[in-house]
Amino acid sequence: MPKVTPTYSIVPPSITNEFHSSTEEAALKRLDLEIQRDKFLKRIQRAVNRFSQRERQIIVMLYMKQEEMYDYEVYAEMGLSQRSYYRVKVKALYRLAFALREEVYKKGAAS
């Protein structure tokens, strides 16, 4: 947390590029986090833009809108059956995981 009360020190100021103020460090950390967030959001946007129309619509309606929607609301609004909706949704989530390189492999049972 930044300090709001001044502190006085006998240590002379240095001419290096290092920051010693907690306010400056907090601002730089926040800036770094914003840059990382923007890069990640652009990766997601590029990945979702490569999806089919239905896949894109499902992902956007479920996860990228301000108001929360449930699965049954989405497939009712899209005019899909529950079965075909979940089939498209699973495919979209797999494609998103691969596009973001977040896929997880499980070791199968040896026969």
Automatic annotation (TrEMBL):
InterPro entries the record matches: ArpU-like (IPR006524), RNA_pol_sigma_r3/r4-like (IPR013324)
Top-rank lineage group of the source organism: Bacteria
Q: What protein does this entry describe? A: Phage-related protein
Say which species the protein is native to. Answer: Bacillus mojavensis
| Higher taxonomy | Bacteria, Bacillati, Bacillota, Bacilli, Bacillales
